[in-house]
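RESIDUES AND SHAPES:
===
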Amino acid sequence: MLTFEMMWERVLACDAAYDGQFYTAVKTTKIYCRPSCRSRKPKRENVEFYKTRQEAETSGYRACKRCQPDIARSPSSALVHDVTTFLLEAYMRPLKLDDIAAHVNMSPFYVERTFTETTGETPRQRLERIRIDQAAYLLKTTDWKNEKVGAAVGLSTPSNFYRVFKRWKGASPNAYRKERDDATE
């Protein structure tokens, strides 16, 4: 579901929200890392992405000593991983906390409390961030109208899409797209 470009942007942003969703491998050093690793960023052409640690290790990469992607996760980080994986797969649908909790077979209260304590954001905020990351990608790579982009990422009412996009990106979808167009000229 995540494209190379989307994963590369998350690596450059050191986005911990995507830890466990994919792993970044550097061909020249034969090391793989989490997306949130703070080590110096490699050249884009030297990067490969793997869905699991096992895939990276099978391909001959070893774990980074700085971000330690091979260290076992705690139960709370396992919950965060499961919830984030679900949100990445289902972000385009209308979702409620009950849907998320049912997916991980836990109570909504426990899911929200544990997720928020572990990440500093609620599942709803994580869902919004995933949607806006996807919308930003679509605004950069397509000529779709803003309403179509909003609907494609699960924000079907234009007013809600504009409000949420501006809150996360600091600019309206039109201004964000104009920045992209100005950068390519």
Q: What stands out?
A: The two ends are 29 Å apart (CA to CA).
